[in-house]
Amino acid sequence: MASSHFARSLRAALPSSTSSVASSSRSIATTASLQAPKKAANAQAQKVKRKTSIKKNAPSGPRSTGAKRKGVSATDGASSNALSTPFYRAPPDLSGQWTKLSPDSARKDNVDTPLAFTKGDLEAFETCGVEPKVKKALSSYVQPISVLRSSTLDLYTHMDSASTSSSSSARHHILSSSISTGKSYLLLQSISYALASQWCVIYLPRLINWVNSTSPFSYSAEEQAYLQPEVVQKIMASTLAVNAKSGVLGKIPLARDVPGTDFKASGEKTVQDLLKAAPSYSSNPLVSQRIFDAFLHSISSQSAVPTLLAMDDAQALYSTTNYRDPDYKVVQAYELAAVRSILSLLVGGEKAGLKKGMVLAALSRSHSEWQPGNEIAAVLAHATKSSSTSALNGAALHAYSTMKPLHLEHAKRSNWTPFALPEQWTTSELKALFDVRRVEGRGWNAPAAAVTPRLASSSPAGPPGARGGAAVGSFDPLRGLASPPPATGRKGGSVGSGAATEDELFMLRVVDSARNPYRFDRALKGGSIM
């Protein structure tokens, strides 16, 4: 009985175990069949993603000129990338197009004429580092030029008298006209004239960088001021490089002992020797500042070599800096040792000022954060007998205008003489810029139908209907008056149709730029003129 019961239970259990074995075998087979392609795919992916070694400096892609291939020169490879479209024109060779700016060419018969800067001038500008705006303007020319203006000749006359006079009165000139009237360019023209006349040139192109907290500084208890070693080292290095060709620094003896160094005033050392040794003391901020002070003192106390101290952004000397002391109080400009050294040269008068030479500074309005302050504005307004309104920022100065007493005192004792620049350029001066761009092939043309009505509406004579219905003809670039239209345009074709004449385009740019040279030049290079 028991055996029969066991047999029945065994027969009942066999089908289920057989089915479970079968199902497990199917699952194993299915898993194996799925895993096999997956492993194969992974293996294939690993083969594709295998990293390959990349050789540096090897030509890659279609941009390669092929110059690195064996037997192919760099010139042959680059020739394949040259522009070959019919609209491309290579820059013209203007090496001998313009007369060089020099004391000989600075004559009345060359007024309103473009004169090219010499190679030495451009190297000096590059060494000192001009304003970015001015650097961009210089680089936009095929051959960097400047227009010889009447104000340029007036400045040269002042420089000639300063080179022979031993009095320091009325030799601190400051350019204080409105924005984009040519102040920075006039500084460059004065530097060019000074270098050609064997002057010692000290050019400080961006005084704002002294006060905008972009250079490291540290307090010195000995000097009771904040030292800026990078600033003074850069000035001394650029001054040495700019005057190296003339060798005038070797003619100026050292007039003061420099503590911490072997330089003594009683020896035979010169300013050139001092500046050459200055980089070896760059790790010592205090000694660097003392070398800078000895350099300025030696320059100002001698009368053998005339000196030009040219400064841009001069309002920084009388400003509140972006530096903070350990108590997070703002630092004034006169608390910086480098600024204090320049101020000592300005306010020193007969004792500490330049014995022979000129200080020429320019106030800049191109920086919204560093506009000329009320202190220098009040001093210049008083000097020009226009105390009611500041000529710098157009704001009326009154009894409650905010002024810092020390900045005001420094501005007064600097003895600035305003050097007036015209607020607008003359038509002849703008015509000189126009001729330069025309020779360079950068003038933009426009349809006469778009130019003529705009000139008519801007003409003092009014629109054509106000002149008895006379048609607008060609324009005299020196007078700006419309003459009756000829049968054909000056360059061919009808004036009322086709391309506008050069005189019409010139007068259109004069009208749109309001005789501002910066806006006028932008219009010549394709700015928004229509």
TrEMBL record:
Renumbered residue ranges of the record's region Disordered: 1-106, 451-498
Keyword Plastid: no
Keywords: Mitochondrion, Ribonucleoprotein, Ribosomal protein, Transit peptide
Biased composition (Low complexity): 12-46
Superkingdom of the organism of origin: Eukaryota
Presence of keyword Ribonucleoprotein: yes
Main location: mitochondrion
GO cellular component: mitochondrial small ribosomal subunit
Location in the cell: Mitochondrion
A single GO molecular function term of this UniProt record: structural constituent of ribosome
Family: Belongs to the mitochondrion-specific ribosomal protein mS29 family.
The protein's name in its UniProt record: Small ribosomal subunit protein mS29
Organism taxonomic ancestry: Eukaryota, Fungi, Dikarya, Basidiomycota, Ustilaginomycotina
